[in-house]
Amino acid sequence: MRKPCKVLGTKEKNNLVPTKIDPTLLGFDFDGVIADIAEAFLRLVREDYGLCNLCLEDIINFEVDQCLGLEKAQSDAIFSKILFDSVGAGLQPMEGAVEVLEELAEFSTVSVITARSLAAPVHDWFAAFFPASTCKAIKVIAMGDHDDKAQHIHEQGLQFFIDDRAETCVQLSQAGIQPFVFDQPWNRHRHQLPTVSSWRDIRDLLL
After folding, report:
1. Rounded-to-integer distance, Cα 142 and Cα 175, Å
2. How many Å apart are CA 167 and CA 110, to the nearest integer?
3. The model scores a pTM over 0.85
């Protein structure tokens, strides 16, 4: 495995690391980074439970039942819909994700490491939104746990990773991996790590 690249300082805006990075060394989380799980969740909350007054900014905790007034059984039921049938649940890509990932897939493997327990619904989702040539370049690892991503990232020879869960990013930093927190309401004020706010930011990081 290569030694981690030296990261040189930060910009004030979004704490972006200015050093350009090799995209072959970069990995991605799925939900909340590539796929807009918050939009899907809130839409299903409206459809299934009639709760129409919730918005993205209300999700200030990764454990949504702790901030949205939902019972855990309700939030679990909605997440199950999304996780087991992402296409049927209407899960959409984050703005700009398709274009950037298509570009990356032209010259390297795109490593997606997710806390989901099943990879098949993720593969089905990619097939629904991406051309076959891009899907062939996407490697999905479903680890089934929010913790210990560092082990899988190291096994793939990656040095950089983008995730929306602040706790995960802190763990990665402690394991010698440079994380970038994909800015979401549920990770704000929970870390002091570099952030990206869009796929345009991600594209700007790459060589």
Report:
1. 20
2. 23
3. yes
The DSSP string of 86-118 is TTTTT--BPTTHHHHHHHHHTTS-EEEEES-S-
- What are the CA-CA distances from residue 153 to residues 1, 69, 77, 138, 191 (Å)? 11, 35, 30, 15, 20
Task: Give the helix ranges, DSSP H, for the chain.
Answer: 37-49, 72-84, 97-105, 120-129, 132-136, 149-155, 166-174, 199-205
For residue 17, the model assigns a pLDDT of 54
Pairwise CA distance, residues 192 & 15, whole Å: 8
How close are the terminal C-alpha atoms of the chain, in Å? 20
Q: pLDDT-based confidence at 207, cuts 50/70/90?
A: confident
Distance CA 56, CA 186 (A): 9
**What is the Cα–Cα distance from 169 to 174, expressed in whole angstroms?**
9
